[in-house]
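Sequence in, structure out. Go.
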Amino acid sequence: MAAATDRSQRAAVLHADGKKRCAWCTEDPLYVAYHDEEWGLPLHDDPRLFEMLCLEGAQAGLSWLTILRKRENYRRAFDGFDAEKMARYGTQRQSELLRDAGIVRNRLKVAAFIGNARAYLKLRETGESLDHYLWQFTEGRSLRLRPRRLGAVRTSSPQSDAMSRGLKSLGFSFIGTTICYALMQAVGIVDEHQHQCWAAASPPRERRTGLMAVAAPSDQITRGARPRSTRCSS
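Output:
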């Protein structure tokens, strides 16, 4: 209990390169690159959003670093997250995936990837982009929050509750409110770098795709949600 309490009180941590980063970010180079170059930066590319939606679901019950280390394996195994190819996977292909040691071999999660591909394609058939659908829950704005302690980083919000309900109604799975909130953080719908993290001190930044972040007041998300545990290492 004491260790968990101590962890929740962590402020941004000084790394060997002289930069302070969010307390969840370890010194692992892969994690550092993800924190610096992806997490919290707005993403508006439909295929990449679909990939992140799937990977966040794969994380359920695991650390994000576990999934991040397997991301290239997932891209290989799932045809670069080509939804049209994934939607056609049958029983034989699913069996092959469950024998692939490079991914998390969980039958329900593999089935969810395929079901989500089909739901994504149905959404596109209506003329709706995944980008517009996900960002509508914040009216297209990136919500900037700057918690001082790790325990103040949220695990859900009214927006993630609404996103979860909406995605489930469209046929998506492994997309509960905690997963939706982690997705929102990952793709910049929420920018929640801790106070004193170097990224928090920076002006709104762009992804390498050249998409601009749009700042919103820090009170846009209701405070008081549970301390987040999904970005810890194992």
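Check: The first strand starts at residue 13 and ends at 14. Residues 209-234 have pLDDT under 50 and may be disordered.
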